[in-house]
## 1
Amino acid sequence: MPIAVIMPKLEMSQETGLILAWKKKEGDMVNQGDALLEVETDKVSVDVEAVASGILAGVSAKEGESVPVTTVIAYLLQPGETAASIPAAGKAASAPAETVAATPAAAPAAAEKSDVRATPLAARMAAVEGVDLKSVTGSGPDGKIVKADVAARLEDGKVRATPAARRVAREKGVDLESIHGSGPLGRVQEGDVTQYASASQVITAQDKAPAAAGEEQVIPLKGMRRTIAERLQASYQTAPHIQFTARVDLTRLNQSRKEMNERAKATGQSHVSVTGLLVKAVAWTLMRHPWINSSLKGDEIYLHNEANIGVAVALPDGLIVPVVKQAQNKQVGQIAAEVNDLSERARAGKLLPSDVSGGTFTISNLGPYGIEQFTAIINPGQTGILAVGASVQEAVVVDGQLQVRPVMRMTLAVDHRVIDGAVAAQFMADLKAVLETPMLMLM
């Protein structure tokens, strides 16, 4: 029976998915692990990979179309089947059990409902690693496949690689055994393959054809741009914003950062940016001011016990906010590496839904663009955002003497429904103190 491909539910709050591109066309042979299509949610765009093989047929959703989650959008025909075997289009929930969609989110369910019996964890691991469960011998109760069985199959002379890496390797004719993987346990990543093949790939969210001479260019308000517009408009209209600006003397912070980077260079660790230090300092301060690290949901205020700091990253066609989770428990070097990784993957369009969810506070740093001071709109679901400006040389009085020092302006915007002025002012005072005396973060 044909296997249904559905619009996956990649996020808890996701209701629809926008089809950016089909990676395979009607009639193409699709192998398990191949990228079928690229889907954009409210936050990220991801490749949807097949968890079964077959011939793509019955494609019912076009590129640029927004489709409700769990809707059947195509089928994978099995050997001997034709287009006549395809049932009427409908919701995956109403489709026969054996036609569960070939998507990452549905992979465990598909394995459970096929002839192969496997635990959900084993099925998920097999889908991620591109392992055919039919080739695995189960050691669990009644021959059920468990995680250890899949792991053993991976070690059985097979190169550890992501499905995307295997796909690119096939396309470029690259032997995976000749590549040193940069992922966990030497797992080959897609970037390892493209680098090995000396290929460069530029990924953009949408192509924009240049306008003819004398004509205006018209760009539809859709996808990420539309989501940004709707969410920020709602935030600004419903949350009464009040702003607080403070000047910070960066002399000691710059010296500490210089010493950290000298150490990082000598040990091969990630370069520590000002943003990385800001994330650590903000997390330290949030733990002392839980009202700033809160959310208003209906008639209830939730005070979060973790500092999940969102870092705004500018993209060619919008803005995205990947999140550093539990920043209060991480060292500066670890945060710096994570910020660098999230920023790079954000600009390459490689973020996952989990990378941009769960934020409790946001930092927007426009200092690298030369902006000295600005205000930002609070990210919906949060009660505060910090707008950080550029460092400039200014005259300051130190111990009664006039000196020229690096000064940075930062502006905190908070939701006045939840946070009073005095609470916000004390937060800024403590943040200023820890930035001017970084040693406080050790206390």
## 2
Amino acid sequence: MKKLFKQLTLFIVPILIFLFGLDYLMSRYLKNTGEVFGNVTSQYDLYKSRIHEPIVILGSSRAEVHIDPNVIKKGTGLDCYNLGWSAAESELLMYRFNEYCKYNPLPKLLVINLDMTTFNTQQVARIIRDEQLPFNLYNFEAFHFYDKNILYYLIPGIRYSEKRFLIYQTLLLGIKNQQLETKRYNGFISSDSSWDDTQLKKILQSGPRTVIIDSSAIKSFCSSLKYLQEKNVQVMLYYAPEQQASFPLYKNRAEVLALYQQIAQQLQIPFINYAKGDIVLHKEYFYNAYHLNRTGADMFSHMILTDILQLFKDKLPFRK
């Protein structure tokens, strides 16, 4: 029995040493990969308690690529951070914000982007993105998002086992002591891509969709906003511009927008629908139906800046 135990130990211990070493190196060097594996820099800022900006933008990619924190900072005199995260529906959106609150101070103003599918019952969050991997080990709050066995995220190194290119690229940068330049500024990244409606046309061929609202997600979201209000955090909701060609995609588009207005009225916070403005008429401001290009993002950043100054002029210490 002792001999068997010794043999097992000699077999298992080197494997564990290797896995722990791999996990440590991957988690350490992944931050040097720029945008190769996603929104890595923002993840490190969040979990390393580097976000102290009084204005925080929260939402999906339609926040991430639309609002330039530098524009907000120049206009208000207050620093701003963009926590937008691609494909973030309500549960994942609030998970991201809760993680932010665990490691960083509450903002003075939280600006939240709502999409047509933010509370859609068919939206399923899965935190298995490369940029999230270094922070998922033993993160019990995130376990219910995983689409793999929980043990996959309890054993160091295993979470990287299917990421061969990530391992190669990340360790190569670490060995070279090299860091790729990030294109982001406080979480924001813009695109110079030109208009392309190829994907939209394919989606429209299948006919308009119906957004089925998850009432429990609405309830949880409102509960979180009430908590923030109790903590004296100012909150603003908005619906980002989308090119008008996308309007027929959802049958109950008007009803969903009316629901967002109702939520805002009940909580006594502002909600602004920017899809009503002139910007939605011009394809040259978009690179696809839902996302603004660099020119459009700059225009929209100034639009939302104007409303922030107007709505919160007596509630926040803006630069005079």
